[in-house]
Specification:
The protein has about 300 residues and is an alpha/beta fold. The chain contains 13 helices and eight strands. The structure holds dihydroflavine-adenine dinucleotide.
Length: about 300
């Protein structure tokens, strides 16, 4: 119920524009978003790196409607890749195709993504293409397959699979045939029952099934979850199959379960933290509240303090 309310609110344009412009809104989102400027995310990355975690940087912003916005996002990602290299940070980038203009013109998004992956490959870095809601699933996968099929891009671009999607097992098989790196998550959007499992038990069962396929593939994947049961199942499977801890990484979101992030690093597992930044934080922030409505109370309490 609360989840549905927060997901509904995440799509409200009027609330979004008021919140993103207010300093109160920025204060509220601070727990999950590194800041609004490039320098903020670079600073946060340095701190997270010094705690032994890798990073994936994400410039917040999705469903852009103007060509200039898409170019602006792409320029920012090029600067991020340059800064990662110049400052020797342990980081890559995550990008949403709708922030690169997929809703405006497919060719525009294709050209901008291509040039980003080209840049990442040149400096031996990596671009993760985030997975958005189901209207974008097939197109996103087509992009990834297409980009990865070019020899010089191999290993420098990867996909995200959502365990709540019924189609994911088939998609994982196809990605693995090409040895494409995958981030496995549960899925953050509201999807209808014909496309996605609705019960958490079914999502978890599928998550574990897919996790096993990934770990056995011999490709370097990301197991993205804060769910201790999913994490324990992954460790258990890795140990049973003698898969070394450096053959994959756990991934978590900035500001969520920092205790668990630290503990996994101490225990010798690899951890990558996804750090979002930018002025368009509202939909991302609302999806985080939807996952755990208790966060709304937590955020408010901190604000009052
Ligand atoms: P679940 O939601 O079952 O939560 C398990 C436990 O984790 C909770 O009980 C709580 O303790 C903790 N927790 C989870 N969310 C929390 C929150 N917001 N605040 C505080 N505690 C929380 N989705 C997508 O559709 N496309 C994508 O590209 C990505 N990319 C992505 C990258 C990375 C690195 C991560 C970690 C996640 C994503 N996601 C995503 C989001 C993902 O689909 C999912 O919505 C969240 O990770 C929450 O799911 P969990 O696996 O954590 O489990």
């Amino acid at each position: 119920m609360l989840r549905a309310i927060f997901i509904g609110l995440s799509q409200s344009q009027s609330l979004r524009s008021v919140s993103e412009k207010s300093s109160l809104g920025r204060k509220l989102s601070h727990r999950f978003v590194a800041g609004t400027e490039l320098e903020d995310v670079l600073q946060a990355t340095k701190e997270v790196n010094s705690a032994g975690c890798s990073v994936s940087m994400d410039n917040l912003g999705e469903n852009v409607t103007r060509i200039e916005e898409a170019h602006h996002t792409a320029d920012l990602y090029h600067r991020l890749l340059d800064e990662i290299q110049a400052r020797k940070l342990d980081a890559n980038v995550s990008v949403k195709l709708t922030s690169l203009g997929l809703d405006v013109e497919e060719k525009l998004a294709r050209d901008l993504t291509h040039s980003l992956v080209e840049h990442a490959a040149r400096i031996n870095n990596f671009v993760r293409i985030d997975m958005e809601g189901s209207p974008y699933t097939q197109r996103t996968l087509d992009f990834v397959h297409d980009l990865h099929s070019q020899d010089r891009h191999r290993g420098h671009v990867g996909a995200v699979m959502q365990a709540y999607m019924r189609r994911s097992e088939r998609d994982v098989e196809q990605l693995l045939q090409e040895r494409i790196r995958i981030r496995l998550c549960k899925g953050a959007y509201k999807e209808p029952a014909e496309l996605a499992f609705q019960k958490m038990a079914e999502v978890n069962e599928n998550y574990i099934r897919l996790m096993k396929m990934l770990l056995k593939s011999g490709v370097y994947h990301g197991i993205a979850t804060h769910d201790e049961k999913m994490i324990a199942a992954t460790m258990e499977f890795a140990k049973a199959e003698k898969i070394p801890p450096d053959a994959f990484e756990f991934q978590m979101l900035y500001g969520i379960r920092r205790d668990l992030q630290r503990k996994l690093v101490e225990d010798g597992w690899r951890m990558r933290v996804y750090i979002p930044f930018g002025s368009e934080w509202y939909p991302y922030f609302m999806r985080r509240l939807a996952e755990r409505p208790a966060n709304a109370l937590f955020v408010l309490k901190n604000l009052l303090k």
